[in-house]
Structure formats: structure tokens, C-alpha cells
Amino acid sequence: MTKARLLRLSVVLVSVFMILLIIVYWDNVGTAHFYLHTSFSRPRSPGAIVAGEDWEALPDVDEFLAKLLSSSLKQNISIPRKTEQLFVQGSNKPVVSNLEENVRGYDWSTHKDRSSLDQEKLQVERQRTLREFCANSSFTFPTKERSFDDIPNYELNHLIVDDRHGVIYCYVPKVACTNWKRVMIVLSESLLDQGVPYRNPLDIPREHVHNTSTHLTFNKFWRRYGKFSRHLMKIKLKKYTKFLFVRDPFVRLISAFRSKFELENEDFYRRFAIPMLKLYSNHTNLPTSVSEAFGAGLKVSFSDFIQYLLDPRTEKMAPFNEHWRQVYRLCHPCQIDYDFIGKLETLDEDAAYLLQLLKVDRLLRFPPSYRNRTASSWEDNWFAKIPLAWRQQLYKLYEADFVLFGYPKPENLLKD
């Protein structure tokens, strides 16, 4: 009799423990907060380097948790989505209050005539190029051989997660990242306007877009999930759709220079312009405010900026600022197997195609692009006064971004 009671008590205790375990993990993986996983499949080459590719080698507890996540995704397919029911087409006019956006302006054309690109083939080619060079042992660059587990916590802060739709976006500054962050806020409903989630990306103020507290990033997993962080990252990297947008590296540098040093930016003036003017233009007793400096005609030149990038002291002081840090250091493309690689040069077509693949094109449209986007044709003029040796050093500094993402080597800038 006593043995029977002990047996029944054991069964009850085990059941309670399992229920608690499921509840705790259910909350951790975020399945209570998203409704449909929209990851799309594509063929992978045998040599592809994939974060979380050791899925089957995970411990038993991780396998259990992975199955739990998969089953919950299937169950949630039938749940009606509140966001879709609240579909609102993008506004006809943008909310523009930032000087930079006023200077650039918006292009409100529909670009319907651009739909002829074979996006599927384009993605296959971009991913093939990336995988081949990641697997090519003769092509090397810093951090290439690291595993995902070797990437420090602070280097994962550009990976934004949307658990509602199963999406991970690695943002690259100066590559339409402001508007892609706005899209992620709308999808994840992570920001409210008078108690209601934003539905039109352009309604979201710029200062809120770049507020780090607005987004769930991999960097935040550490304090939220503790020892489960890496396991959860791998699960989401395996299950979610991962995308990034890139740009010609030299053109991105020009855009960063124009944005941060040709417009009055107090923070960048104090952190970067003052040291550059002192080191490379021999200025002393500089004004403490950017408005005073601009009024006195004291501005960083493009030559100063290039010297700063090439100066070995720069990286010793601190890593490159995110606006000119290489994409391979921001998004780790050889450690994370991205499902979609967009380019600023084909932003309108790529954005429309991606939103279709994510099955969210009924919820929103990507904000219109800037009319006077920095063009590749400007490179010759911008680099005309930069010494050839500097240009060659600069190419070596950004070579990995050129090669991995299929941008042609700018031979005209690297020869006499």
C-alpha cells in the first residue's frame, strides 16, 4: 500500500516538474509572443558554414526544446493574427522632421516597371558567392575562422529579432537601416503610439528608431536568458528567416562621411571631428560646438576621414564606429547563414520581394527610397585627391566586404 502511494506521488511530482519546465521554456523561446514562422527554404551547398548547423549534436535537453518550439509553431498557424486584421496601407506623405531626411527627400514612385528582375535567381547567386568565399581557405580576413560561439556578446548587438513573425535582421548603418528598423518595429509591435502599435513605418520618429531599448537584439539575450542564451540563439538562427542589406563599401564610406561630417552633428563632431582636425589638419583650440566650427569654416575633409580610417592608432583606441565598420564585423556572414541578402543598389525590388517572402506584404510596404542616394559614379570624384597608396590600403581594409557580397574591385581607383 505504501509503495503504491509512493509511486503515485512520484508520478504526480514528475508531471508537475515537466509542466513547469515546459512553461518556463515556452516563455524563454518567445513562442507566446509570435504567431507564424515565415522562414522560407532554399538549397544549401555542402560547404556552407551555418550557425547552429550542429543542431543534431545538441544535448538531449536542447533537442527537446527545439521540438517544443517546432510543435508550437505548427499549432500557431491556425491562430488569427491581430496584426493582419489591422492592415493599413502606407501613408501618402512621409513624416519628415530630421534635417538629413529633409536634405535627401523621398522618392514616391511605385517602381512597377522594375519587377522584371528574377529575384529568386539573384538570391541564389548572392548566397552562392558568399558561401564559396567563406569556405575558400585561400581567401582570409580577420575573424573569418571563428565559430559562432566565439563571437563576443557585444558583437551581436546588430542582430534584431522579431519573435512574432520569426525574423532576424542584421542592420548595417548607411544601408537603409533606419527604415528597416522601422519595419521591424511595426512587425514586432515593440513600440506603441498612444497605446496602439505603429502600423506605418514612416510614422515612427527617428529618435525612437535608433533607441537601443526599442529592439530585441541578440546582445540582450545574455541578461534575459542567462545560460540558455547561446542555445536559444542557435534555435532561432536555425528556425527564423535571417536577412541583411549591404552596399558598395566605398560608396557606403562616402555616405557615412556626408551624413556625419557634412551635416552638423554634435556627437560626431566631439567624438571624431575634433580628433581628426587636430591629428590630420594641425588645428588647435577648436570650438567646442559643431555650429561654431561650421561657422568658422572648420570641417573635416574627406582626406582627413580616410587618414583616420587607415591610421593604426584608430583601432587601438576603439573599434570602428558602426557607420564605417565593415559588414563582416557587424553581421558575421561566415558564421550566420543568411536566407536573404539585399543590396541598396536594388533596394526597391529587393525590399518588395523580401516582404512577400516573409508574408507580411499585406501588413506594410517598405518606405520609399531617397531620391539623391549616394551614387557609385561619385567614387571617382570623391577619391580624386586621395593618394593612390591610400586608396589601395583602404581597399585592403574593406576587401572582404567587396568579395563576400559580390562587388567588383574598383580597378579604376587602384591603378595610376
Automatic annotation (TrEMBL):
Its EC number is 2.8.2.-. The chain crosses the membrane at residues 7-26. Its main location: Golgi. GO terms for biological process: carbohydrate biosynthetic process; proteoglycan biosynthetic process. It is found in: Golgi apparatus membrane. This is Carbohydrate sulfotransferase. One of its GO terms (molecular function) is sulfotransferase activity. Keywords: Carbohydrate metabolism, Glycoprotein, Golgi apparatus, Membrane, Signal-anchor, Transferase, Transmembrane, Transmembrane helix. Belongs to the sulfotransferase 2 family. It comes from Mystacornis crossleyi. The lineage of its organism: Eukaryota, Metazoa, Chordata, Craniata, Vertebrata. It is a single-pass type II membrane protein. One of its GO terms (cellular component) is Golgi membrane. Pfam families: Sulfotransfer_2. The keyword Transmembrane helix applies.
